[in-house]
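A protein record in our archive is deliberately plain, so that people and models can read it alike. The tokens are whole numbers drawn from a learned vocabulary of local backbone shapes. For reference, a complete record is included directly beneath this paragraph.
>
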Amino acid sequence: MRILTGTLLIGLALSITACGLVPKQEAGKPKKPMTSKSSEAVNSTPPATPVNMIAEFDDIPVPVELSRDDEQSSVYEAPGFAVGVIAYEGYYKSASISKFFRTEMPKYEWQFINAFSEGKRYTLTFLKSNRSCSISIEEGSLSTKLVIRVGPTSGG
């Protein structure tokens, strides 16, 4: 009986000691994966501007910070044709949204036509083949409203 008790005590002591040799990970902090310097150099370029694309108009980007307001949006679609008004809301500076569209829309082959601004209100107009896109931006005290209107041009 004495041998069994001694063996259990020695086993318990070794288990406790062995647990102390294993390094503990700090609670709530995941281990960082090992990376090589070559992979860090490849990933050092800044990411592209994060955008969402309008489902009905796959050539019109929208800042990811804005949420679509389906109650204020309406779209008519037919094969090869879509027109409509799509509304978004969120807090984003109206001047920043204006700059976003002036930078991003040409990447999707939209031609800038004109811009009108009055305080924190902006209206931008773009043209692409037989379609026009009017973008209205109005910054309020709690949120910014964005309305995108897409329709045919007089020749289309």
